[in-house]
Amino acid sequence: YVQQAWGELGITVNINKVEWASFLPMRRAGDYDISRNGWSMDYNDPSNMLELFTTNNGNNDGKYANPDFDKVIEESRVADKATHFEKLHEAEDMLMADAACIPVAYYNDFWLQSPSLKGTWHSPYGYWYLQYGYVEE
Q1: β-strands 117-118, 134-135: how paired?
Q2: Tens of pLDDT along 52-75?
Q3: What is the CA 100 to chain-centroid distance, rounded?
Q4: Would the pLDDT of 129 be above 80?
Q5: What residue segments make up the domains of the chain, in order of their start?
Q6: Cβ-contact 35, 61 below 8 angstroms
Q7: What is the pLDDT at residue 90?
Q8: DSSP codes joined into one string, 87-123
Q9: Contact between 4 and 106 (Cβ < 8 Å)
Q10: What angle (nearest 5°) sits at the alpha carbon of residue 73, between those of residues 47 and 126?
Q11: What is the mean pLDDT of residues 2-7?
């Protein structure tokens, strides 16, 4: 999709297919121009995604580095909710203005569940919890 869509913009995209075992170290080393990445949230706060882009974050495979962004993220680490979200929104605006990442796709999760299956739940983060499940007769 990206190759076709960007081609319509006059951008030539050459795709290199590599084995997953090779791809991960290449991405971590920054050995690419553009790379696929993904993240599933661990907790319900935008900081879970935004902090990935701080300069020294071990998961910052894109090697994005902006001292102003880092400062705003640090300023977001406060107990006051209004300030917390205000600073995270400011950080998000900086991230998008710098094109530090280009969101292309989002995960979707669809499921079909019998009404007789009880005691299970599906978290908004994509995890299934079946340990207390049972079938109601």
Answers
A1: antiparallel
A2: 999 999 999 999 999 999 999 999
A3: 12
A4: yes
A5: 1-36
A6: yes
A7: 98
A8: HHHHHHHHHHHTTS--------------TTEES-EE-
A9: no
A10: 10
A11: 92
Per-residue pLDDT at 36 exceeds 90? no
- Identify the three-state secondary structure at position 128: strand
CA distances to 33, 44, 57, 91, 106 from 94, in Å: 21, 21, 17, 5, 21
Task: Give the amino acid at 127.
Answer: Y
pTM strictly above 0.90: no
Give CA–CA dist 70/66, Å, rounded: 6
Q: How far apart are CA 50 and CA 114, in angstroms?
A: 37
Task: Round to whole Å and give the CA distance between 52 and 58.
Answer: 8
**CA distances from residue 84 to 2, 10, 35, 41 in whole angstroms, order as listed:** 34, 40, 30, 18
Q: What local confidence, expressed as pLDDT, does residue 113 receive?
A: 82
- Spatial contact of 40 and 126, defined as CB atoms under 8 Å apart: yes
Percent pLDDT > 70 in the chain is 100
